[in-house]
């Protein structure tokens, strides 16, 4: 690491606010959302286990587990994707980046920057597509499930998608800026 104030760690940790205020704020928000997603995974696992036990041993399944699980997977992804972006842990061809970076570190930074900018566009498009449906769900009281058996409002799940996609887009732009700084010699 160099002693420049724009430098941020590249090890997946949240940079200090004094060194990278934008990265620190994005990192804290992303870490909080990711933590909520992790807790949600634990709760979902407990719900599924309780449903299986109730179904097999008590002949009393829990109503709505499949509906909750189906929507929860998408919500959990959008809660955790921004942290994955900041930590450079999205699915990608790491072997290719390592091979390029070994012989040409600048080429690896260019590829990382292109990857981050593509991610920013994709997440912005998800945000753009989800925005109107989110507010429509709130206005109309949209729900999913079987009426009279089990229903749950869709608005919270759609809002998580909007917030997660927006934050992931911002995190992708931040990662791109870090790669550009690294190209200019200012550290990652």
TrEMBL record:
<dbReference type="GO" id="GO:0022857">
    <property type="term" value="F:transmembrane transporter activity"/>
</dbReference>
<protein>
    <recommendedName>
        <fullName>TRAP transporter small permease protein</fullName>
    </recommendedName>
</protein>
<keyword id="KW-0812">Transmembrane</keyword>
<feature type="transmembrane region" description="Helical">
    <location>
        <begin position="24"/>
        <end position="48"/>
    </location>
</feature>
<dbReference type="GO" id="GO:0005886">
    <property type="term" value="C:plasma membrane"/>
</dbReference>
<comment type="similarity">
    <text>Belongs to the TRAP transporter small permease family.</text>
</comment>
<feature type="domain" description="Tripartite ATP-independent periplasmic transporters DctQ component">
    <location>
        <begin position="44"/>
        <end position="181"/>
    </location>
</feature>
<keyword id="KW-0813">Transport</keyword>
<feature type="transmembrane region" description="Helical">
    <location>
        <begin position="107"/>
        <end position="131"/>
    </location>
</feature>
<feature type="transmembrane region" description="Helical">
    <location>
        <begin position="155"/>
        <end position="174"/>
    </location>
</feature>
<keyword id="KW-1133">Transmembrane helix</keyword>
<comment type="function">
    <text>Part of the tripartite ATP-independent periplasmic (TRAP) transport system.</text>
</comment>
<keyword id="KW-0997">Cell inner membrane</keyword>
<dbReference type="Pfam" id="PF04290">
    <property type="entry name" value="DctQ"/>
</dbReference>
<keyword id="KW-1003">Cell membrane</keyword>
<keyword id="KW-0472">Membrane</keyword>
<dbReference type="InterPro" id="IPR055348">
    <property type="entry name" value="DctQ"/>
</dbReference>
<comment type="subunit">
    <text>The complex comprises the extracytoplasmic solute receptor protein and the two transmembrane proteins.</text>
</comment>
<feature type="transmembrane region" description="Helical">
    <location>
        <begin position="68"/>
        <end position="86"/>
    </location>
</feature>
């Amino acid at each position: 690491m160099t002693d420049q104030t724009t430098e941020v760690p590249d090890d997946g940790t949240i940079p200090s606010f004094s060194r990278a205020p934008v990265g620190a704020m994005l990192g804290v928000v992303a870490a909080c959302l990711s933590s909520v997603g992790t807790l949600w995974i634990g709760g979902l696992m407990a719900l599924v286990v309780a449903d299986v036990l109730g179904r097999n041993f008590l002949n009393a399944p829990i109503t709505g587990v499949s509906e909750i699980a189906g929507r929860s997977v998408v919500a959990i992804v959008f809660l955790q994707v921004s942290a994955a972006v900041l930590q450079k842990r999205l699915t990608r061809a790491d072997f290719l980046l390592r091979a390029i970076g070994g012989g040409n570190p600048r080429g690896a930074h260019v590829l990382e920057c292109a990857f981050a900018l593509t991610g920013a566009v994709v997440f912005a498009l998800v945000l753009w597509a989800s925005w109107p449906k989110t507010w429509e769900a709130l206005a109309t009281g949209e729900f999913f499930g079987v009426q009279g058996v089990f229903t749950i409002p869709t608005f919270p799940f759609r809002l998580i998608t909007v917030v997660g996609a927006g934050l992931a887009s911002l995190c992708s732009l931040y990662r791109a800026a870090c790669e550009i700084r690294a190209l200019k010699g200012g550290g990652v």
